[in-house]
Amino acid sequence: MADRKPSVVVLDYGSGNLRSAVRAVERAGADVTLTGDLDTAMEADGLLVPGVGAFDACMRGLREIRGERIIARRLSGGRPVLGICVGMQILFSRGIEHGVETDGCGEWPGVVERLQAPIVPHMGWNTVQVPEGTRLFAGLEDERFYFVHSYGVREWSLVTNDRTPEAYQPLVTWAEHGPEGQADRFVAAVENGPLTATQFHPEKSGDAGAQLLRNWVTSL
Predict the structure, then answer these.
(1) Helix (H, G, I), strand (E, B), or coil: what is residue 20?
(2) How far apart are CA 120 and CA 130, in angstroms?
(3) pLDDT tens-digit map of 6-39
(4) What GO cellular component entries does it have (predicted)?
(5) Residue 197 is assigned to a structural domain of this protein
(6) How many other CB atoms are found less than 10 A from the CB of residue 71?
(7) In a domain? residue 140
(8) What is residue 212's predicted lDDT score, i.e. its pLDDT?
(9) Which domain holds residue 146?
(10) Residue 97: CB partners within 8 Å, gap ≥ 6?
């Protein structure tokens, strides 16, 4: 049916701002289910992976519901996944917090580490450096988004070549935190085929965040 809403599962693995994420994606035009059930998560048009807190704790919760398998299986079938905040960080190879090194999902190479800025955490509104060709940030190139984090990915290390399909060529959005001359650069968002992620919280980012979620939902 033409008026059918896309179905989205917000993955419930014990972490994240779950209710506000559900409400935000509903307002973006999706039919939303909050669950950790594998079959339901596999069948949805889109999967949103939230995350708040420590990398290690989030990975433990994710593994308890086999969430890393859900993500991998969806992506192997080209089915969309959106990670938010620590839900983005756990998509990378590993995280290092307080001397503890934890394996992530490994969907992207890279290390989540403490931001090297004079004041941490990075908390509040910030602009982002949007890449050419973005669909996620369509109409939002000059907007600000809400960040709350002390850790991030400071180097993008995925290597692609001319044989990589255009749809799978990653588009990386960057942001900086700290005063001029002392600012640290980190990955603010990634668009990579069916896998999309933001370090900031769209559900806390006002009208700009609402439009970004609509951009994602309408792509499902």
Answers:
(1) helix
(2) 23
(3) 999 999 998 877 999 999 999 999 999 999 999 9
(4) cytoplasm
(5) yes
(6) 24
(7) yes
(8) 98
(9) 7-218
(10) 54, 55, 56, 112, 114, 151
- Cβ atoms of 68 and 33 within 8 Å: the answer is no
pLDDT tens digits for range 163-199: 777 778 899 999 999 999 999 999 999 999 999 999 9
| CATH number of the domain residue 101 falls in | 3.40.50.880
φ/ψ of residue 205, rounded to 5 = -105, 30
- Which tokens hold the place of 73? 């299986």
Are 171 and 191 in contact by the 8 Å Cβ rule? The answer is yes
Is omega for the bond preceding 131 within 30 degrees of 0, making it cis?
Answer: no
In the block, residue with structure tokens 């994240």 = 16
Structure tokens belonging to residue 10:
């917000």
- Reduce the DSSP state of residue 115 to 3 states and report it: coil
CA-closest candidate to residue 197, choices 18, 34, 46:
46
What is the number of domains present in the chain? 1
Q: Which are the catalytic amino acids?
A: 85, 201, 203
Q: How many CB atoms lie within 10 A of CB 56?
A: 18
Q: Which of 136, 152, 8, 9 is nearest to 67 (CA)?
A: 9
Is residue 2 included in any domain, yes or no?
A: no
Distance CA 36, CA 114 (A): 29
1: in domain: no
